Amino acid sequence: MSGNLFRDPGAARAGGYVLAAATVLVAIGLIFHPVPAGGFEEKPSVLQNTPWWGPIHVAIAGGFVLCVLGTLLMLVAGGSLTRRWGLALAWGAMTVGMTFFAGVALINGWVMHFLVARGAPANDPLLYDAFNRLLIGYGWLGNPLFLFGLTTLAALEVARAAAEQAPGE
């Protein structure tokens, strides 16, 4: 294949490095995150008495923010990454989805931990429940959109590879 695969090779390289760093941060955060109890709503009792609540969610949030940056850089890189409208849609969906989903981890790491440390679930349940619902709302906005983009990207790349295979191989 001749020529450059990307409109902006520097953005593609930077995006790859940023997405690799994002993967490490999110993986570290999720390794130490306990399994959620009680469905979608955050249960303070799971992490309430540990100093790990904040750092776990900050690592996840940092990884999510880097994921937004990485996918945005991939959109800027263009070329083979966005050669068809479906690929551009997939990278865009991942960017926007992670923007919302980063809010989940940020609110969880900085706001919910703060509220639980000050007894808000018992003393001010309305405030705690409001932030809990905000977490759920941001999650429902971000996670499906991110997963749609990721799945679309994977499906289009598998279809492309299958179409490029020579007959009889």
Can you offer a commentary on this structure?
There is one protein chain. The protein has helices at residues 9-32, 44-47, 53-77, 85-117, 120-123, 125-164. The chain has one domain (9-164). 77% of the residues lie in helices and 0% in strands. The chain starts with 8 loop residues before the first helix and ends in a 5-residue tail after the last helix. The protein has 169 residues and is mainly alpha-helical. Keywords: Membrane, Transmembrane, Transmembrane helix. The chain crosses the membrane at residues 12-32, 52-76, 88-115, 135-156. This is DUF1772 domain-containing protein.
Distinctive features:
169 residues, mainly alpha, 77% helix
In brief, what are we looking at here?
With 169 residues, the chain is mainly α. The protein has helices at 9-32, 44-47, 53-77, 85-117, 120-123, 125-164. The chain is built from 6 helices and no strands.
Number of domains: 1
Shape: elongated
- Determine the structural class based on helices, strands and strand pairing: mainly alpha
Nearest-integer average pLDDT = 85
Give the ordered list of helices and strands. HHHHHH
Beta fraction: under 5%
Integer-rounded radius of gyration: 19 Å
**Termini gap:** 21 Å
Organism: Eiseniibacteriota bacterium
Protein name: DUF1772 domain-containing protein
Keywords: Membrane, Transmembrane, Transmembrane helix
